[in-house]
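Q: Sequence in, structure out?
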Amino acid sequence: MQLAVLAGDLLLSRACVALASLQNNEVVSLIAEVVQHLVTGETMQMTTTSEQRLNMQYYMEKTYYKTASLISNSCKSIALLAGQSTEAAMLSYQYGKNLGLAFQLIDDVLDFTGTSASLGKGSLSDIRHGIITAPLLFATEEFPQLGEVVQRGLDNPADVDLALDYLGRSQGIQRAKDLALMHANLAAAAIDSLPQSDDDDVRRSRQALIDLTLIVINRTK
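A: Exactly. Output:
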C-alpha cells in the first residue's frame, strides 16, 4: 500500500514537471483544478449522507468531479495550447464534459447489465459497495419504497436482491441510457459548432470525435 502511494506521488510529480514545461499558466491552472476535482469527487463518494444518497444532482456533480472534469479540462487545454479562440476552447470543454458524463452513465448501466469478464471487474460492484448510481436513482422515482431499502445502506445481501428486483421492474436502466444519449448528443453538437474547415485532416478529426460519442454510448465493456 505504501509503495502504491509513493508510486502515485512520483507520477504526480512528473506530471507537475511536464505541466511546468508547457509555460502556459492557464493550462496549469486547469489541470491543477482537475486534481482537486478528483479528490473532491472521491471524498463526496466516501462521505455521502443519507439525504445525498438519493439526490440526482449530487450524483451528477460527483460524476463530473470524478470523471468528466478530467476529460473536459483536458480538451479545453488542448484547444488553448493549439492557439484556438476562447469560443473554440469552451466548445472543446463542453464536448469533454458531456462525453465524460455519458461515459460514466453508461459505465453505471454496465455495472448492472454487463458481465464480470467483459467489465474487467465484478458486475454489481457499485451496489455491493453501497454506491448508488443513476439506474437506481431513477428506479426510486418509480418505487419510493426502494429509497427505504437504499437508505438502510445495502449491507444486507437480501436488501441488495430486493433493490435489484425493484430495478428490474423499473425504467431505471433505460432512463440512465437515455440521459447518457442526451449528453452524447450534446458532445457531438459542440463539435458541430466549431468553425468549419476545408482541411481533410481537420474534417477527419472532427468526425472521429463525433464517432467517439457513439462508441461511448454503444460500448459493452
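The chain has one domain: 34-218.
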